[in-house]
Amino acid sequence: MLYTRMPIEIESPEEIGYEKIKYNLSESSMMDLNMGDLHLSLDDLKLEYVAHRGHNGLRKLIASESNNINEDHVLLTNGAAGALFIINTSILTPQDHLIIVRPNYATNIEVPKVIGCDISYIDLTFEEEWQLDVQKIKAAIRPNTALISITSPHNPTGILVSELAIDKIITIAEAHNIYVLIDETYRDTCFKTPYPITAAKSLKVISVSSISKAYGLPGLRIGWLITQDNWIMERFLAAKEMIYISNSALDEAVAYQFYVNKKSFAKKHNERAIRNYTLLSLWLSTESRLEAILPQGGVVCFVRFTNETFIDLTIFYDILVNQFLTMVGPGHWFEMSDRYMRIGFGWTDEEIFKQGLTNISMAIDECLNQK
Ligand SMILES: Cc1ncc(COP(=O)(O)O)c(C=O)c1O
User: Fold this and answer.
1) Which of 16, 68, 149, 314 has the most crowded Cβ, counting Cβ within 10 A?
2) What is the dihedral of CA 294, 296, 300, 301, to 10 degrees?
């Protein structure tokens, strides 16, 4: 497979160096936790190969969050990114067709592209308030459609696909014998998704999630996929075994001990994110050069310059990063114009977040004054 690096990864804070960014509004997760925050007991941990499906206790806990799901339906992976890679490469071949929502988290689009399958994009627009039109999915189906790929809550907009729309998509997929990949990585992040894990609804649905975004633990690289379809699960397991046999014993043990107590961490995370969300909506109501559809899920908002704002985008981002040490996720990370930018409100404390927003406004002022 001919892999190419994705801008969102090349330009990510971890590649640039976190220490160079004072106001980091580019993150899509909650503030990262430290090992010491977790109060772990790991001395007896044997550093052996672990169960290929993943830590039994953790899989049980994940499964217990939904009816119809048991631990055999859960495969632990190397982050949600690992799950997405396994699913896409196990289901899709160059002869297959895929329907995918755009913009999206880059991997969701780039992996099918690298495989070489035919892709129909369902483009979400600001004008339609980023809402997914199920009829467009129906119209895009071909005889060789193998997968419908959606993300909810959606990155980068934070928009939630309604349960009604999900149910309609499942009906379509079942009628055409197509798998549905639902990337639910943000389902427990800040605003809790008001419907069950979607893999519980149908054998055709494969859900993906992780502990990265909702709990600020992306460094553990623990995610999972969920499917009730035993046949496809065997293929996913085969893929995992070929790529890396099992997850890291250390990551899984830490993730399990964390997961047992996750509610106590989630409360603090969510309260901070909600306070930042309030700051964000207040700021947007006074910042007339920008506009946004406020998110209903996750901790990101996809803001854009209004049509009336004539701004040199190269100069704007240069001033924002180099003069104000502030980073957001520019539109090109999501194959969109840089008139759009993703602002993450879960990762920083309120003081940094507020100053970061002020810096965006000051960078716009500075840029417009240079004309
Ligand atoms: C929608 C979505 N899915 C998956 C991932 C990958 O997350 P991880 O591999 O850290 O679980 C991300 C990361 O930004 C994401 O935004």
Assistant:
1) 149
2) -20
Domain ranges across the chain: 7-32+263-369, 44-262
Residue 1 confidence (pLDDT): 85
- Homologous superfamily (CATH) of 7-32+263-369 is Aspartate Aminotransferase, domain 1 (3.90.1150.10)
Cα(144) to centroid of ligand 1, in Å? Answer: 28
Average pLDDT for residues 182-191, to the nearest whole number?
92
- pLDDT (tens digit per residue) in 128-151: 999 999 999 999 999 999 999 999
- Residue 109, token pair as written in the block: 């689009």
- Note the CATH architecture for domain 44-262: 3-Layer(aba) Sandwich (3.40)
Residue 283 has a pLDDT of 98
Residues in contact with ligand 1 by the CB-under-6-Å rule are: 28, 79-81, 105, 151, 155, 183, 185, 210, 212, 218, 223
Rg (CA), the chain: 21
- Residue 369 CA to ligand 1 center (angstroms) comes to 38
Average pLDDT, the chain: 96
Ligand 1 centroid distance, CA of 354 (Å): 25
Two tokens, residue 176:
């055409």
